[in-house]
Each structure stands twice: as C-alpha cells, then as structure tokens.
Amino acid sequence: MLKTSFLISKKDEVIKLLSKRGFDANDMVNEIISLDKKRKSIQVQYEGILAEINSISKTIGELFQSGQASKAKPLKDKSSDLKKSSKDLAVSLEECQKKINSYLLQIPNIPHKDVPAGSDEKDNKIIYESNISLNKNLTEPHWDLAKKYDIIDFELGTKITGSGFPVYKGKGAKLQRALISFFLDCNTDAGYEEVQIPHLVNENSAYGTGQLPDKEGQMYEVTSENLYLIPTAEVPITNIFRDVIIDVSNFPIMRTGYTPCFRREAGSYGSDVRGLNRLHQFDKVEIVKIEHPKESYNSLQKMKNHIEGIIKKLELPYRIVTLCGGDLGFTSALTYDFEIFSPAQEKWLEVSSVSNFETFQSNRLKIRYRDNHGNIDLAHTLNGSALALPRVLAAILENNQSDDGIKVPKVLQKYTGFSVVK
Fold first, then answer.
1. What residues are paired with 129 via a beta bridge?
2. What percentage of the chain has pLDDT greater than the value 90?
3. Which member of 83, 202, 275, 375 has the greatest number of CB atoms within 10 A?
4. Count of CB atoms within 10 A of residue 315's CB?
5. Using CA atoms in the order 112, 113, 118, 122, what is the torsion angle rounded to 10 degrees?
6. How many CB atoms lie within 10 A of CB 202?
7. Is 230 in contact with 262 (CB distance < 8 Å)?
C-alpha cells in the first residue's frame, strides 16, 4: 500500500507512473488529498479539545485543593460537553481514515522507471533468450510422457479431488522430491536460511503481502476458521517480520522455504491448463529478502542471477523478461520473469518471478528498520520463485525425452538415485 504522504507530495509523478500500468489514478489521488485535508482539520480540532479537557481537569483539581470546590461545577459541565465532542470527532477521524484506506487499497504499486510501458505480456521486454532448436524428436508433450512412463496420474487426481490436482507416482514422485531438495540446497548454499512455515494464513497475513483484497477470488478459504490456504510461501515467510523493527546491521535478511501452493485459477481454460501447465495445487520453493531501501535493487539483481544459475544447472533453454506495466503484479515495482521452453508445445512456460515490492508490502506489514542514528523507516521486501516445480518438471520431461526414456539432468541424479526414467 502506498503512503498517503508520498501520494500527496508526488501527486503528478504518481499519476504519470501508474499510467504505465494503464491505471488512471487521477480521481482517486485527488479524493485522497481532499480526505486527508479533512482528516488533518478534524485532527487539529480533536487535539485542541483534548488539550482543553486536560487544562480544565487541572484547574478543577486546583480548585478542590484550595477549598473552592463549588466553583468546579460549571467546569465539570463544560468538560463533559467537550468529551462528547471529542468522541464525535474521534468517530469522524476513524471514518475519514477508513475512506482513505479504501482508496489506497485500490491503487497498485508504482512501477520502477525500468518497467516498460505496455498493456499485456506481448509488451514484455526480453532481456535474454537461449538458442533453441525445434528438435523433431522432442514432439511428445509432457502429459503423454507422464502417462507413457506412469509417473504422473492426472485422472487419479481428478478422482480424488478434481482437475488440477495430479498424483505423482514412483520416479515422478522422486523427481519432485529431488527438485525440492536441489532448489533448497542451492538457496541455502547462497546464504538463505531455510524455514518451514504454515500452509494456512490468517486474514492479516494475506492482507499484509497484498493477496487481500486484490486476489481474494484466487485463494481457497477455510471459512469456518477465516483462514486461507497459501498461494505461495511468500505470504507466511514475509509475515514472519510483520510488526518487527529490524536493526540495520541485520540486512539483508534472507529466507527460503518449500511449500505446496494452492490457487483456484478461476477463468483458466484451454491448452494453458493442460497437464502441468496450470494447477490448483503445486509445489514451489521460494526465496524472500528483507532489505535496506538503498540496496534493494542490487539485491534484486543478485536474486535474478541466483535463479538464472539454478536454471543453467538444469541445462534447460530459458529466457528472462522484464514485465511491462500492464502485466506487472499489483504489489510489484519491478518484476523479472523466467521462462523455460517447451519444445512439444512450442511455447515458453513461466517458472519464476522475482520482484521488488519496495515499501508497498512493508507499509501494510509495518516491517521497519532502525538505522545507526536511531531513525526508523520502512524496509524493502523482495521475493522470487526458486523455483516453481510443475513447469520445470514439464520442461525436463519434454527437453530430455529420447528413445531410451527421459534423461534426468546430472545435477538431480544424486537426489533421484537414477539417471533415466523408463
């Protein structure tokens, strides 16, 4: 959530930058400015009345001490009236702030200057792309390969739960476990501390990282407990630091964790949901950083390089794109997507997004830091998938198929205990 003071002081800049997203913030920003003026006026009245009540209370005390209690009656009556007025003003203040917050919740994060303008994924900027060759031998899609080698059962998952909940079997399950262990080891070797976190979160946690109210329809909710199944480990990991004041010497804070992720993916259809392309439950390893504002974009580049290094070790064709304004997530200031090539489908599959949210999340979460002079300010939050498993596994199956079976990438063989799926 953007800070009101920032919106007011940088009004024209905010409106201009948000237009890169195709978001017209003019009316909302003007309404926030008007409401904030009203709030400040009420605040002055409220504080003035409280000061007057305190002054009267002091005078009444002095009258009683000097034996002039009879003179206190009119002052008591006045104090009573002022207290009623103060309560009315407190209600007005709260209502005014609620209206401001209702507008702030609708305004997405301000895009970084490097975010290209554009309306959708066609306008994303490719910053790196591997050489790819459409090998005629790599024609079977992963869903056929999964059935052929009996490693993923989509029908069984549908029977048990519904579509989008596959069952991994035998070497398929071991490949999943191998990828999780490999990703976690890569992350911990890079300095990320591993954490095991809850797979359900409360409303405050979902609100803090921006899933509520923006993505409410995409999450599974346990209504009886008012809890949500997590759409990503980013939510519980980042919330570890909610309402925490961090000493500046502790930056950067680096965490990684594996969780299943749950997304309703309402409105998805066609080839985009075939096989492992888009699931309601999937496994993912996440990396999260809490960083000093001056270092957050250096950290973003380090995270990008780290994820690229993992994909290189898997020896898969990939590309990196900078998301344009229209494709940028609601909470992100700058996002790089990693995509792996699917030869059988002849398209790129997103396997990771690495983003800098600047203070958008930390303002909601009240993640702050204290500098060497004792000053307190908002930290920056960042996160990335390192990596999401379904499409990585799909790409491994399709890019490594042969007449002898599916060749397992060398870096995974010490985790799987086998080199070929056949």
1. 319
2. 92
3. 275
4. 13
5. -80
6. 14
7. yes
